Amino acid sequence: MTSVPTRTDVEEASVRLAGRLPRTPILDGRSLGAQLKCELFQRTGSFKARGALNRVLQLTPDERERGVIAISAGNHAAAIAFAAAAAGVDALVVMWQGASEAKIEATRRYGGTVDLEATDPAGAFERLHTLIEETGRVLVHPFDDPVVIAGAGTVGLEIEQDAPTADAVVVAVGGGGLVSGIQTALARRMRVIAVEPERSRALHDGLAAGAPARVACDSIADGLNAPFAGGIALEVCRDIERVLVTEDEIAQAFRLLHERAKLAVEPAAAAALAAVVSGKVDAQAPVVVVSGGNVARTTASAILAAR
Questions:
Q1: How far apart are CA 176 and CA 97, in angstroms?
Q2: pLDDT value at 149 more than 60
Q3: CB atoms closer than 10 angstroms to residue 232
Q4: Are 141 and 119 a contacting pair, CB within 8 Å?
Q5: Can you give the pTM of this predicted structure?
Q6: Could you give the C-alpha distances from 138 to 196, 215, 248, in angstroms and in order?
Q7: Angle made by CA atoms 152, 153, 154, in degrees to the nearest 5
Q8: Cα 278 to chain center, whole Å?
Q9: Tell me, what's the pLDDT at 2?
């Protein structure tokens, strides 16, 4: 069984990342009913850089020589490319044909080599395992690695320090890496609430099944469309408060973040706020984690134009 990270692991990650990644601000979003932890201002445009860099910095000399490999069509792809380049390690990222051209280009720009042999996500996972066997590279999992999760948990430490009077931390969930990291950091200190789209319920269904469960997912919040929640997330988040939000609620929160907070977010980053503005979170002083800002212009313009 994969080990579960501890608060100490998160604190050590915070020390390790200090000076390498910026501390993101918390903005006053009183017109939205929440403070906003702005991870869209993190390197590579999302919280993912924290976990990827924490993992790469702990590679052994042998692992550094072998290089790393990851699978992602989104923020983890750019994050692992950035982290590997920062540490002088070679990175190969498995994506698939039809993935966002902007995210493919961003991954390459940060120094990663992109493999596009697969035609769809299922094929990409098969390709991943083939390449691991062929190359011996070290897998950096986007959300089910305790070291990656500990890095993500540093978001929680910063919230605890910078917003000590908050009565809830609201976090959107895909595969569960961010929420399990924050829960690890803040358990018994601050209340953490997990938010999922109704059309992408990997954590909800995994907890119901008692194990990672494959789910169909087609939310507008594409960054949350993980095919399953990680085993670590299911262990760490067994008793966490959970909220489901609709596509319309996500779109409305997306527009509010653009119009009122002037934040150019991606739809996944709007899901947590959607739970607050729709009245599904019972809290007087919540902090919403705005997880990233990597959105295609066509996607953003379509949501902003709709009413």
A1: 25
A2: yes
A3: 27
A4: no
A5: 0.95
A6: 30, 27, 40
A7: 90
A8: 22
A9: 67
User: What's the CA gap between 40 and 44, in Å, rounded?
Assistant: 8
Cβ-based neighbour number of residue 270 at 10 Å = 30
Q: Where are the alpha helices (DSSP H) in the chain?
A: 7-17, 48-56, 61-66, 75-87, 101-109, 121-135, 146-152, 154-162, 177-186, 202-209, 231-236, 247-259, 267-277, 297-305
- Assign 111 to helix, strand or coil: coil
Q: pLDDT tens across 223-266, in order?
A: 999 889 999 999 999 999 999 999 999 999 999 999 999 999 99
Task: Identify the band that residue 1 occupies on the pLDDT scale cut at 50, 70 and 90.
Answer: very low
Q: Which of 175, 177, 185, 173 is nearest to 145 (CA)?
A: 177
CB of 194 within 8 A of CB of 237?
Answer: yes
First and final C-alpha spacing in the chain = 47
Residue 118: beta bridge partners? 96
Report the DSSP pairing between strands 286-290 and 34-38: parallel
User: Are 153 and 182 contacting, i.e. CB atoms less than 8 angstroms apart?
Assistant: yes
Q: Which of 161, 170, 145 is nearest to 50 (CA)?
A: 145
Both tokens of residue 53? 């860099």
pLDDT digits (tens, 9 = 90+) for 74-122: 899 999 999 999 999 999 999 988 888 888 999 999 999 999 999 988 7
Q: Are 169 and 191 in contact (CB under 8 A)?
A: yes
pLDDT (0 to 100) of residue 100 = 81
3-state secondary structure of 152: helix
pLDDT computed for residue 121 by the predictor: 80
The overall average pLDDT reported for the chain is 95
Q: How many residues does the chain have?
A: 307
Whether the CB-CB separation of 267 and 256 falls below 8 Å is answered with: no
